[in-house]
Amino acid sequence: MGAIVAIVGRPNVGKSTFFNRLIQRREAIVDAVSGVTRDRHYGKSDWNGREFSIIDTGGYVVGSDDIFEKEIDKQVELAIAESDAIIFMVDVETGVTGMDEDVAKLLRRVNKPVFLTINKVDNAMREEDAVEFYSLGLGEYYTLSSINGSGTGELLDALVKELPEVERRMMTNTAK
Ligand code: GDP
Ligand code: MG
Hints:
The chain has helices at 15-22, 65-82, 98-108, 124-129, 152-162, 166-175, and strands spanning 3-8, 25-30, 40-47, 50-56, 85-91, 114-119, 141-143.
């Protein structure tokens, strides 16, 4: 098994669209323990020969806005705990939202690579709109369009460079 990458963010930013673009096959739907609120899709992907697992978080969320926000926080905490790198996806069409700011606050404390990824940048004009996401305090960002695929290569190049060599670490442990 390779490194694990999680895609987090509020609903409708395009996480699942991007996930579906990345995976070659959908492996399983697991962790549906607490019913509809916590399903997570796992898939496998590779980029330039580097294989990694990818988690799409936050399939369905039911309940009040309050539960809703708590659920997203939970998804982010889980992603932080179990993945080697995090793709934090936001949406250039809506711009920065309060929920984005909440997620950013959690991720600013994380000691793992976080890739702020601005989705729905379908054309050059939207590239200019993306600058407002600097306000999230996560530094540089990647812009892409999950629908037409533009920009995905730049993100994946940067991502695989930051992924730890999980295979080697696991082999070392077994040998002990
Ligand atoms: P999720 O809730 O974050 O998983 O978001 P989805 O992947 O379900 O997408 C939410 C909506 O955004 C859908 O209608 C998608 O077709 C749309 N969407 C996703 N990626 C893009 C994109 O790159 N450009 C545009 N224009 N729409 C997108
Ligand atoms: Mg989704």
